[in-house]
UniProtKB/TrEMBL annotation, chains A, B:
This is Aminopeptidase P family protein. One of its GO terms (molecular function) is aminopeptidase activity. Residues 25-170 form the Creatinase N-terminal domain. PANTHER family: AMINOPEPTIDASE (PTHR46112), XAA-PRO AMINOPEPTIDASE P-RELATED (PTHR46112:SF2). It comes from the Bacteria. The keyword Hydrolase applies. Keywords: Aminopeptidase, Hydrolase, Protease. The keyword Aminoacyl-tRNA synthetase does not apply. CDD domains: APP_MetAP. Residues 177-412 form the Peptidase M24 domain. SUPFAM superfamilies: Creatinase/aminopeptidase (SSF55920), Creatinase/prolidase N-terminal domain (SSF53092).
Length: 430, 430
């Protein structure tokens, strides 16, 4: 029942991921496995399992460099079989998973040299990793298992996180359409909520209004992040000094938050006149996120903040020219640092002082912190189909944050990127 | 600035965790370390870091079995120092973390035998675990580091997840007060939204209304789960057959969801007459969650479903009598299975067929899937201050789910547990 919908009328909105999408993704992944001389990859993270199978039911996806992949499902087998476009079987006894792999993939595990199997070690919890490494060892080394090896079998299951993250960077037309749906849902919800952004309303009350809007339009209720210990509700709305408070969140402006248990995003602070209000919002439709930021003010900003906002718009215009096929991500980041410095705003760019972040933009897709990142260390060239959120922002401690953020898809042949964000670009003066 | 509030008026709602709470928690943890002969524990997960320090900024918490713990902060040091009640220092160079630990905790790492250090391996990603194990080895074994050891240093950092989970089971009065605040916020929001639960309204639209209510009352926008690949927005609202669909979610009724990328909780299905509507809802205030379920119907349920709902109420009444100090969790689970079987409903209890879950209730607190669990394997006795959500439910494939869920705190001396859930117990006939 791959890719077809057997639901009744009221279930029509439950759209499966097309089988050809999954086939293309598996094919591209297998090419990467061959290129990096991996025998196979064991995918454990729910978002990646969804991407390469079409279902998010729990289990383990085994993709050999050549041949048919298998999804071993813990729960629910029934739903996984309905949704997945690849071979789907019950996981069975977890402690016998090594033997199952050896049976199903004899050409890999009965080969002469030890196979090189990778996994998503950037998300996989250590306790499960130790078990899986032992099973993969057992599949090759036989009944003695990984525990008998000097390194406990760790050499049998290596880190394939970078490979898996790179493999999801370029989005298909089907995926981009979904990101655009999220952009529309957010734009409509923001337009509904803006008239209620008034003096005396709290950041929390107002984001609740936006969240209601995106939820009614299909927002799935969570925004997925890959980073350990990172969370985001639907973005942040930060006004005045509350926006400028430093946070753990891996972004240029985290916001004060509601307390130590939610130390980022909105707070109970009420909007006041003549302070910058940062509207960094997102939502997730069909699994795909959008990310955008606008700056608003009730009344008027100071000249210093108006200039900084202008600098953010200037930087995003200049960066758009640089975001062409083949450009190196790190070069774009370095160029943005120079643009901020040219305006005398280096210390305020992307956070302040010790709490500055070292990037200008980040990939978006199924997760809000995808690759590539516009940062040092990311020397990969931009490719058509990559989708990035670019967010030049300036932080003034005790005063506030101004900035802008658009999401773009890279296009082919040296053309500028296409903006996916719908909301009008301006300083919203309310 | 431990435990005091230096914010201005509009920041008054940002309540710090009292220093004496943190001191009590650290003290209890150190007693467990001594009892289990661990030299120290390295805490990496944001929720646990919050619990034992008062801040959720990113970094690593090192708690020795005796002496002063230290929070090594990656970001933001400024905010962590403001919020934490324990010694808080910048992490500095991560690659030198082993040397930092050796300097700060010489009595542990310069001892004769290798120290036994634990960590939360149930959440810690494998790639970071491998680094931390290497650092801890380096702290003891010197410059050669963990990589030179036969097992790559893994024996130096063992799994302390069970210890850490057990240490958070018994809640203080301060914590229970916060869970009760969440219960009030949910009850008020549910009461506001119930009049809008009408034929033709979709599950999604209606939960959006509840979510708006809890958000305005301080819901932090996320519900935290510990389990890998588990997610929950604010619970699920499932009507008729949509509620009864099997899911990966580790609960008795996950719900259809919005698509493969959100295959649980609400769907686009519209409420119809004479079908059971399961309202399994929660929210998170000050970091603490509440979890409750009620069953509603527009019109009338069939006799079979009415009887099943009655059985759920009967089971929760009987289980309340069993939930006394000293009772074994697994015994209560086994008793509930018998109660369901006595009503001829064994096959429908806690899910259906292959997708039944093997528990009756679960701890709640900072996470929705805390310990203890009312399940086989949990032979620990109930202790005063433990908080559990108990959720007898019956699934009828193609028809729907009925049931009830209350959250309780265990009391002392053989008294029945105190219900924290506020919403009236009844089949809501609308």
């Amino acid at each position: 029942m791959t890719g077809t919908n057997d639901f009744t009328a009221d279930q029509a909105a439950y759209d499966y991921i097309p089988a050809e999408e999954i086939a293309n993704r598996i094919n591209a992944l297998q090419q990467r496995l061959v290129a990096e001389k991996l025998s196979a990859v064991l995918v454990t993270h729910n978002v990646s399992v969804l991407y390469w199978t079409g279902t998010m039911q729990t289990g383990y996806l085994f993709v050999p460099a050549a041949g048919e992949p298998t999804l071993y499902v813990r729960r629910s087998v029934e739903r996984a079989k309905r949704e997945a476009s690849i071979r789907t079987v019950p996981l069975g006894s977890f402690s016998r998973f090594g033997q199952t792999l050896r049976q199903d993939y004899a050409s890999i595990f009965e080969s002469e040299g030890p196979p090189r199997v990778g996994a998503d070690l950037d998300t996989l919890p250590a306790s499960t990793y130790l078990k899986l490494a032992s099973f993969v060892s057992e599949a090759y080394d036989g009944d003695k298992g990984g525990a008998a090896l000097p390194d406990r079998g760790l050499s049998r299951l290596t880190d394939a996180s970078p490979l898996l993250r790179r493999a999801r960077m370029v989005k298909s037309a089907w995926e981009i359409e979904r990101i655009e749906r999220a952009a529309v849902a957010l734009e409509e919800s923001l337009a509904e909520a803006l008239p209620e952004l008034k003096e005396g309303v709290s950041e929390l009350e107002w984001i609740a209004r936006v969240e209601y809007g995106v939820r009614c339009r299909g927002h799935i209720g969570v925004m997925r992040l890959r980073g350990y210990n990172q969370e985001v509700p639907t973005g942040m709305v930060g006004s005045g000094t509350a926006a400028a408070e430093p946070t753990y969140f891996d972004g240029p402006a985290g916001g004060r938050g509601l307390g130590p248990s939610a130390p980022q995003s909105v707070s109970m602070k009420r909007f006041a006149r003549n302070e910058p209000i940062l509207l960094d919002l997102g939502c997730c439709i069909d699994g795909y996120v959008i990310d955008q930021t606008r700056t608003a003010v009730i009344g008027e900003l100071s000249d210093e903040l108006k200039e900084a906002y202008g600098a953010a718009e200037h930087i995003i215009r200049e960066v758009e020219k640089l975001m062409v096929e083949g450009a190196r991500c790190s070069d774009i980041y370095v160029a943005s640092l120079k643009l901020a410095a040219d305006r005398g705003l280096a210390d305020h760019f992307m956070g302040f002082g010790a709490d500055q972040v070292r990037f200008l933009g980040h990939g978006i897709g199924l997760e809000i912190d995808e690759w590539p990142v516009l940062a040092n260390g990311f020397d990969m060239p931009l490719e058509p189909g990559m989708v990035l959120a670019v967010e030049p922002k300036f932080t003034f401690p005790g005063v506030g944050v101004v900035g802008i953020e658009n999401s773009y898809v890279i296009t082919a042949g040296g053309s500028p990127p296409r903006a996916l964000t719908r909301t009008k670009e301006q300083l919203f003066v309310l």
